[in-house]
């Protein structure tokens, strides 16, 4: 039997005591992938390896309830478009990369800041000045907005008089010509269909990069929240090659235009993963996009945007179709994982889940509404009533440039200050889980916890919606037990005898430091099922 004891530590078990505090100990023993004992019993029993934590903080390892590992890992293979201050700087970086890679027919980049142009509209001519003779395709940090040059527009056939797709927007200028900005699936999917598929070796390298990053930040389980057919084989190969440092569940993407035809594929993919995925890969989930994002005015809204008084956004589904699709996959035993940003998108997701529960037999459902950015007040109690998990990306819960430049002008003051109501939903009894949506923002849980606890950009700045701040204990719970509950892992997310030995060792107790420094706490070691995946 392989055994490891961690001692001389503050062991935060995650188990709530009657007074609301969390039970803590000073040692934990892991044997053959399970927690066996805590405290004095753990210290008394023999262990193959003894780790002196030196007063460090031990907790259940973190989970990420919504992340895109392949997307994030692939970003470094393309033109470096992140962390630039102006569109010309982005274009210059793209041009330099294109000149260094003359063999690339298509110039691609992922993750530029979509707040840098007025109203989020980026012009093809800015890219033409650097790369006039090859198609350029750049995706913004929101992963819902794409910026292309004139050659890309030509190849996809977008010109003056183009017919708008029903599920996207080809942004046009005053003369009716495409600007170079494409919003949502229907507009940019035809362009991405022309891109060459990255070779499998590159995709596996992306997985390895992502997995190593997760382990280094204390993560041992992730929800890949957007899996298309070719991705399944990549994950199974990664499992065979031993490069998975986390457990992972694959959320298969439901296409609103073809979901009925996908049902057989969903079942076959689940069977394939069960047969070939080993102990670390599952596929229990179906991903839906109810709507887009507020920054691009594509989220589905109950009332119009303030800066466009006749526009209520862009739902990706007809409500009756989403209800039918959620009921169908629920009947197959899958969990619905629904991206919903606007209040109409959230309502459509809740209505679909309520419909599925009404027409299908009772069972233990762990369905998820992810992002949960804006919820109409009457819909808030429905999360607890329907047993819906509210998954938040806590790093978003701050008033940053996304908010000041794009979101707040579209929502107006009242709706702006009803976003990301994490504490409100928790007080109402809803299950809360946390994720990152990486590569949209950082996957480091401690950085997310810092924002969840402070809702501040900097130490001297005002908090945004301070009534929605969480305690450190509650934020830790959302990243541990909350994600484990979402995953259906009832033997994970706590440090207690019999639980899976997913454990993280931190340099300091997040409850005992300045809250604005929580994100800087070092992760010293991570264990997944009792095996060290990071540190020593």
Q: Please report the number of helical segments.
A: 17
Would you tell me the structural class of the helices and strands?
Answer: alpha/beta
Fraction of residues in β-strands: 15-25%
Strand segment count = 21
Q: What's the Cα radius of gyration?
A: 23 Å
- How far the N terminus sits from the C terminus, by CA atoms, comes to 19 Å
Can you tell me the overall shape? globular
Mean pLDDT: 97
Q: Oligomerization state of this entry?
A: single chain
Instruction: Flag low-confidence runs.
Output: none
The portion of residues assigned to helices is 25-40%
Query: CATH topology of the largest domain, which one?
Result: TIM Barrel
Number of domains: 2
- CATH homolog superfamily of the largest domain: Metal-dependent hydrolases
Please describe the biggest sheet, giving its number of strands, its sense, and whether it closes into a barrel.
Answer: 8 strands, mixed
CATH architecture of the largest domain: Alpha-Beta Barrel
CATH class of the largest domain: Alpha Beta
């Amino acid at each position: 039997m392989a055994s490891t004891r961690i001692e001389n530590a503050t062991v935060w078990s995650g188990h709530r005591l009657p007074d609301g505090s969390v039970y803590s100990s000073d040692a934990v023993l892991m044997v053959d992938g399970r927690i066996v004992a805590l405290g004095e019993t753990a210290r008394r029993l023999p262990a193959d390896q003894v780790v002196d934590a030196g007063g460090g903080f031990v907790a259940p390892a973190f989970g990420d309830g919504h992340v895109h590992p392949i997307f994030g890992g692939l970003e470094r293979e393309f033109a470096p478009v992140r962390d630039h201050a102006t569109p010309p700087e982005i274009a210059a970086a793209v041009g330099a990369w294109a000149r260094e890679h003359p063999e690339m027919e298509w110039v691609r980049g992922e993750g530029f800041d979509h707040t840098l142009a007025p109203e989020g509209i980026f012009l093809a001519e800015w890219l033409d000045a650097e790369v006039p003779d090859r198609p350029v395709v750049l995706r913004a940090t929101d992963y819902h907005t794409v910026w292309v040059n004139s050659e890309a527009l030509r190849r996809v056939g977008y010109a003056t008089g183009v017919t708008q797709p029903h599920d996207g927007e080809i942004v046009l200028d005053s003369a009716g010509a495409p600007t170079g900005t494409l919003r949502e699936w229907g507009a940019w999917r035809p362009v991405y269909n022309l891109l060459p598929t990255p070779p499998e070796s590159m995709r596996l390298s992306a997985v390895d990069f992502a997995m190593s990053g997760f382990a280094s930040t204390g993560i041992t389980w992730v929800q890949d929240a957007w899996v298309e057919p070719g991705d399944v084989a990549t994950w199974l190969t990664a499992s065979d090659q031993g490069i998975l440092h986390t457990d992972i569940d694959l959320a298969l993407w439901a296409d609103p235009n073809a979901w009925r035809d996908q049902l057989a594929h969903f079942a076959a993919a689940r069977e394939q993963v069960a047969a070939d995925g080993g102990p670390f890969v599952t596929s229990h989930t179906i991903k839906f996009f109810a709507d887009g994002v507020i920054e691009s005015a594509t989220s589905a809204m109950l009332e119009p945007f303030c800066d466009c008084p006749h526009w209520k956004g862009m739902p990706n589904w007809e409500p009756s179709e989403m209800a039918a699709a959620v009921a169908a996959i629920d009947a197959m035993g899958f969990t619905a994982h629904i991206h919903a940003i606007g209040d109409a998108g959230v309502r459509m997701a809740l209505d679909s889940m309520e419909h599925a529960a009404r027409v299908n037999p009772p069972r233990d459902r762990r369905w998820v509404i992810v992002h949960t950015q804006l919820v109409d007040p009457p819909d808030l109690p429905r999360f607890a009533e329907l047993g819906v998990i509210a998954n938040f990306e806590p790093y978003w819960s701050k008033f940053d440039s996304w908010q000041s430049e794009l979101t707040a002008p579209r929502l107006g003051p009242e709706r702006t200050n009803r976003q990301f109501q994490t504490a409100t939903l928790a007080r109402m009894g809803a299950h809360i889980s946390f994720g990152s949506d990486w590569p949209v923002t950082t996957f480091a849980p401690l950085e997310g916890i810092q924002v969840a606890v402070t809702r501040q950009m900097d130490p001297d700045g005002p908090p945004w919606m301070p009534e929605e701040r969480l305690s450190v204990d509650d934020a830790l719970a959302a990243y541990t037990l909350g994600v484990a509950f979402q995953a259906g892992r009832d033997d994970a997310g706590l440090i207690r005898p019999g639980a899976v030995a997913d454990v993280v060792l931190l340099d300091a107790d997040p409850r005992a430091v300045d809250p604005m420094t929580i994100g800087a706490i070092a992760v010293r070691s991570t264990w997944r099922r009792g095996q060290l995946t990071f540190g020593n």
